[in-house]
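Hey, quick one: can you model this chain's 3D structure?
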Amino acid sequence: MHNSSPYRCGPFLLKSNPFTNSYIDLGRGFYQSIKPTPVQNPELVIFNQLLSDELGLTETALSSSAGAPVFAGNLVPEGAQPLAMAYSGHQFGHFNPNLGDGRALLLGQILNPAGRSFDIHMKGTGQTAFSRNGDGRAALGPVLREYLVSEAMASLGVPSTRALAAVTTGEEVAREQLLPGGIITRVAASFVRIGTFEYFLARGDTAALTRLADYVIENQYPHLRQAENPYLALLDAVIEGQAALIAHWMQLGFIHGVMNTDNMSIACETIDYGPCAFMDHYAHDRVYSSIDHHGRYAYNNQPNIGLWNLSRFAECLLHLIDEDTGTAVEIARERLEGFISAYQDHWLTGMRAKLGLKSGLEQDRALIEELFAIMASSNADFTQTFHQLSMLDMDTVNDGAILAVFGHAESLNQWLDKWRQRLRQESSVDVERKAGMSAVNPVYIPRNHLIEAAIRAAEDHGDFSVFHDLHKVLQQPYDLQPGKEAWTQPPRPDEVVHKTFCGT
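Sure thing. Here's the predicted structure for all 504 residues.
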């Protein structure tokens, strides 16, 4: 559906609160006002009705073909004020002062029925001032990947941006080859990043940094307004939020793949799903991203990178933490030193739950680390290991399934004995323990080979049935679904995906 005239405004999408865009009030230096570039023939691939209901959207036509021009940017909703956000970022440790939304636009905010504000953001909408000679578009494959993985993360209970809709554009984008184009509409508490703060620090604009910090506190952390030092409290909140988030990633075998500071959300949600992946066979230094040549963002390095990124955030707040730079540095350093202990606390608590442990003993960490060592030496599948573990009783009668995951390693038998001894120490009851373990150990994850199959079917054959089937299964990741046993399995050797790609 080509809209040759510039743009039309659509109907109000909310019962009472139309689109607004509070980000505009920060000033022109924070963004470029620009409308999406219309596409030739948008078609709706998927509309997230459940998320729409949570947000309070009432326009039912959005779920039909009438929604395609809205989610393609051909039809701008009434009240929306599209803009490309400015930000910088450390990319693989190297600072780039001029990044920003080169293929995405913030439409604005909407209020859900509970009065909570959410950013609505579209990716693949055309060139902006930040495109750096790029086409500003997105290929369909990365759009489908982000939709599947972000919604799977939400179903797994991980703080994440959400996917509201995906469309095809009826146009091709040039990457290594010509690929069908797509646009994804995303929802987040905020799309402000550490890199947003870095943008103004690099320019020495302390006034803008103060406005940005005030904006984040007002919109994301309003309870911090009453703190003795709201800016130091903001640093504390982001440190704690990122510690919990990354621990959750690690407990699920998730690898973000590109933890640049411009991909780290101030709202502490998982953001920007590019070369992300859930690992199949466990290796502590697993890397999938095609652009991570030296393993900077490997699975085991994610907590360290989280701390490194938070250190960059702290640098942006120094002038707000204390007037004396030396004092501010010492205060910030002290707070940052607490990140690793906070991360370890979250990680250990989550891992105890995955092992069915209700109490905490000093020996637990060694028990967990021994299991990971056996997983590594046995090439055991991460998700299957913990799923099968959650199915075990205190006796050994049904140990066969988990032993098969490990190739019947004798070392696993020894570990299972230690684990059961630990459970007896707290008088574990099988029914209760297994229910608790099943609630935190998923059966289904968005495995790389399954995502690739969905992308290949869509891109090569225009067949979205594989995508829809996979998406449906991933909405209930903790529940065994009859007839879906194949979706639980790791890839065959010929199905293994060794590299994932950003799509830019």
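One thing worth noting: The first strand starts at residue 8 and ends at 10.
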